[in-house]
Amino acid sequence: MAQPETRFIFITGGVVSSLGKGIAAASIGRLLRSRGFTVQLQKFDPYINVDPGTMSPYQHGEVFVTEDGAETDLDLGHYERFTDANASRASNVTAGGIYNTVIRRERRGDYLGGTVQVVPHITDEIKSRVRVMADSTDVDFVITEIGGTVGDIESLPFLEAIRQFPAEVGRRRCMFIHLTLVPYIGHAGELKTKPTQHSINELRRIGINADMLICRSEQPLSAEIRKKIALFASLPVEAVTSGYDVPDVYSVPLAFHSQGVDAFILDDHFGLEAPAPDLSSWQRYLDRSAAVSSEITVALVGKYVQLEDAYLSVVEALRHSGVHHGTRVRIDWIDSETVGEAGVDARLRGADGILVPGGFGGRGFEGKIASARIAREEQIPFLGVCLGMHVLVSEFARHVAEMPGANSTEMDPETPFPVIDLLPEQKEIADMGGTMRLGADPVKLHEGTWARDAYGEPVVYERHRHRYEVNNHLKRKLQSAGLVFSGTTPDERLVEICELPREEHPFFLASQFHPEFKSRPDRPAPLFREFVGAAHRRAGGQLPKAEVNVTDARHATTP
Asked: What pTM value is reported for the model?
């Protein structure tokens, strides 16, 4: 087993971005955990934003929220889902955060009047973030992914920092894994290794010699190509891994294991003895996924549907829940601004379930309310997340509780019935970044409700990311009309979950928190699990369903 000291694995990328460094890092983490080691992963992002919290989803995909309230890169969702180890605010580091820390120290006079430079001050701060991860979590391995590609100006300080790092902890405690591309050139009919050779040389120019290569390609690399790449990289053939395309992203750890990735890391590089990996639960999930015998359709109504990564954790939570119920979840991506147009309402009525995910701002809000009304009146299972709960409450207030014009003050500050309003502690805050209610908080679940039955326990911890809450001054009127507040803060001051009684609707529920962030392949988020279960019953004819032919081009299947 592992020695008391932490080992460090640094994962870099070359040629082009979006090759899957996050999946590779998460897969290696899964393999190491399956062999009895403790692992933490972290992501270094080279952009100047302090964190992705204020960035558009079109720029960066979803913002993943950790237990301790950090707004982070979506790759941390991959880390958690693969390793089942919670990330923290130490798990995501940006260039903006590094420079912000160093500049604040300079302003305090911590550098005693010295000239502050990229080397050593910025690089020292970067290295300290790696050490903090190791010291604070006391794990066997820290795996650090460097965002961007080798050669990017923005990434240079991070690459210089990890180049220096072995000198401080020992080269045998560090490993460099480089992810690169081996493209297939159609007219030539062959794979080309030259981009990989150039990428390796660029990494060497910076002063880093890769200990292992993961070569991305459409098809598995032949032994001949692996040998050629190994020759140019001055590596044994066993250190060249074929990162070929697979139909299911969760099969990547098994693909790596079949090529001896974990054995090379532990035995050949670090000289560690470890038991054989226990990947049985992982294999069971993949077997169940491959054996699904039915399909359901969930209409996802949002305003960022042109980029599926904007709702990545939602998609994965639906997928996990589908496998749990033995069904494939097909997502019909519906732009909330198009609700009410010809054909769109028919798609909603023909869905097995309707989901309104989180978001901010008024664009498309009325379309989301219309979607919730269709779900309530047509007895279609409905799940709302964060903003989706504001949608559910506003829709119910307008059309059931006799509050015409009811709305969130985020959308309409002059609404006559502000059923959703700012948290009192938020009203004096001007800055946007990192100022919301963030991270895990306790949720009290009330007996005799969908929520309590889903979780099976009285108190759970779920992650939040919002500023607005159900207005306590209008709670009684909503309750009198039949809305059930099935989850609250322990002091019952704030509403966490709203639902309709099961005798009135097969599943009509929304949460203020984001349950999707804690969903795992073998342990789906309870609210998603129950929502997909209700949709599955509807698809199986156990619930009434409108007949509709869905042919829209945006009809897509989860990856």
From this structure: 0.91
